[in-house]
Amino acid sequence: MKKLVLFLNKIVFFLNSFAATMLLLAYVLPYVEPKKFAFLSVLSLSVPFLIILNILFLIYWLLQVKKQLLLSLIILFVGFIFLSPLYKFSSSKNIEDENNIKVMNYNVRLFNVFKWIKEENVDQKIVDFINEKQPDILSIQEYRRDEDINLSGYEKFEVISGQKVKNGQAIFSKFPIINSGSIEFPNSFNNAIYVDIVKNKDTIRVYNVHLQSMKIDANADALKNETSENLYRRVSKTFTMQQLQAEQFLEHKSKCPYKMIICGDFNNTAYSYVYKEIKGDLQDAFVEAGNAFGRTYDIRFFPVRIDFLLVDDAFEVNSFKTFDVVLSDHYPIMAKVKLK
């Protein structure tokens, strides 16, 4: 029996070593350009899983009081700075202030036009939810223009494309919009749009960024039909395109003279190169004021955060919330920010 336990522990430690090595390698991914090392970039999608896996190995060795626990413990400690974008142990920050600006980001998945969710009136339920929360600024990805979609009390800027279904991005604002525009990404239906709004005497630039999607169906049956070669090729190409799109966006952003809010669906995690580059010195509202996993994309049993709200140092982040509303494959997120 003792030999069997020793043999089992050797196998577990081998798997533990592999998971720890992959996690350590993943820590450097935000500093590696996808177009140079596309294979490594794929690992960024697995960082939440690798962190959780190493925690489970740590618990396994801890229960046995084995020194092997040091492997995952050290790796997790080294990457502690990477853990906060995955899970916030503190409770959500929520400071009410009359000067708060409520900013919501929501990928609405075309308001369920193709009936992915087998439920009646999903489009109206999305509108009702937004009207209930009354964000001051609303950033929407996969938006479509429809006469039945009525969000009243807002100024709006939208960029719509496509033939079969007219869709794109939109920004709604309760503050006056004095300027607007679009950053068109080449060879892609994705783009970034922006508006300049005026609150009191301050001009604020609001970006809505939608980076290239991998177009991978998270459904288990659909994934079974994907060969590993096709999956790898698609993900590698997407990450390379995301980098080029992020570089184009950053060039535009660098010329902006105003205080800034960046919303969007980056189609990549907080452990990716594009997130690191776009975030730069900005504040991630989830990291500043959120709690728990901050999950924004609907993959069963797996916490994935690919939707972000970023603000510059001109703002204080007074709250952040992810709403558990299943009306899209994304969850809406909202932050309350205040100009200092």
Automatic annotation (TrEMBL):
Keywords: DNA damage, DNA repair, Endonuclease, Hydrolase, Magnesium, Membrane, Metal-binding, Nuclease, Transmembrane, Transmembrane helix
Membrane spanning residue stretches: 12-32, 38-62, 69-87
Region forming the signal peptide: none
Pfam families on file: Exo_endo_phos
UniProt-listed InterPro entries: Endo/exonu/phosph_ase_sf, Endo/exonuclease/phosphatase, TDP2-like
UniProt record, GO biological process: DNA repair
Single Gene Ontology MF annotation: metal ion binding
Source taxon at top rank: Bacteria
Cofactor: Mg(2+); Mn(2+)
The Endonuclease/exonuclease/phosphatase domain, residue ranges: 105-330
Protein name: Endonuclease
The organism of origin for this protein: Aquaticitalea lipolytica
Phylogenetic classification of the source organism: Bacteria, Pseudomonadati, Bacteroidota, Flavobacteriia, Flavobacteriales
